[in-house]
Amino acid sequence: MSYLVTSALIIFRKDFKVELRTRENITTILPFSIVIAFIFNFTFDPSPQLMATIGPGIIWVAFIFSGTLGINRLFLTEREIGTLEALNIAPIPKESIFLGKFLGILILLLSIQSLLIPVFLVLYNLNLFELRYISITVCATIGFSAVGTLFSAIAVSTKAREIMLPVLFLPVILPIVIASVAATQKIFTTEGWHSLLPWLQLIIFFDFLYLVLCSILFESVIEE
């Protein structure tokens, strides 16, 4: 177990250092997310009553599109320079590759989410600086990243990976998206935790399900 975790952390640390040095992913994804949020600002008058109803949908649409863009690039660099084959034949558990890549995309997506919070505050007066929204975001992004890691490994070997990934990814992740939108809406319409807890529990259930299934299936996918 310690060898699995150590190998995963090495892979994660490598990806993290590369991203810090190049900032290739975050400088691509963040402007794209801001543009999506900015476009919605011209379609309606962002009154408090209206934003309580449609605001959660805007938040998660921006996150889904930007997240899909980030996940699509997860294995792309390794594929282009040949390190994907090196990882595949390396004497490490395949679960380590999955866990390392999962942690990398998780941190990237959470960073994008945190940077978008001030954007939604300025454009739509949506105050997302609170524990309930942070809890929803972290839990949803875990499931998002688990499924994305698996399907990114599948799509990177196809010629039409830009199309293949959303086609595979979005239907599977739909339960978490629906639960996240519903839970976020409860933040703007009710007080306290009691109303959003069932949705949060549903997200956590799918997180566990996706993590287990994707880690099991990843070995057969990466060896193809």
Q: What is the makeup of the main sheet?
A: none
Mean pLDDT over all positions: 83
Could you give the order of the helices and strands? HHHHHHHHH
The backbone outline, from C-alpha atoms, is globular
Using the CA coordinates, give the radius of gyration: 18 Å
How many helices? The count is 9
- Secondary structure tally: strands: 0
**Category from helices, strands and their pairing:** mainly alpha
Distance from N terminus to C terminus (CA atoms, Å) equals 25 Å
Short structural description:
The chain has about 220 residues and is mainly α. It has helices at about 1-20, 25-40, 50-70, 75-80, 85-90, 95-125, 130-155, 160-190, 195-220.
Explained architecture:
The chain has 224 residues and is mainly α. Helices cover 83% and strands 0% of the residues. The chain is built from 9 helices and no strands. Helix 2 packs parallel to helix 6, helix 6 crosses helix 7 and helix 7 runs parallel beside helix 9. The longest helix has 31 residues.
Layout of secondary structure:
Blueprint: H1 2-22, H2 24-40, H3 48-72, H4 76-81, H5 83-89, H6 94-124, H7 131-155, H8 161-189, H9 197-222
Give the key terms.
globular; 224 residues; 9 helices; mainly alpha
